[in-house]
Amino acid sequence: MKYVREAGLPTTLSEENADEGRLEELAAKCTMDGPVGGLEKLGKEDVVRILNLAR
Description:
Elements: H1 2-6, H2 13-16, H3 20-30, H4 44-54
Helix pairs in contact: 3-4
Organism: Enterocloster citroniae
Protein name: Iron-containing alcohol dehydrogenase
């Protein structure tokens, strides 16, 4: 992580200034092959909610 910071790259969603459209894009890529998750299957909308909480 130190290397990433030293390179000036964002390490959080807020540093990335990820707007709602970007979160939708990330969630779509995450769930491209279907739901994700171990104990509970997460769909795209679930992932979007999680990404919004992580902002």
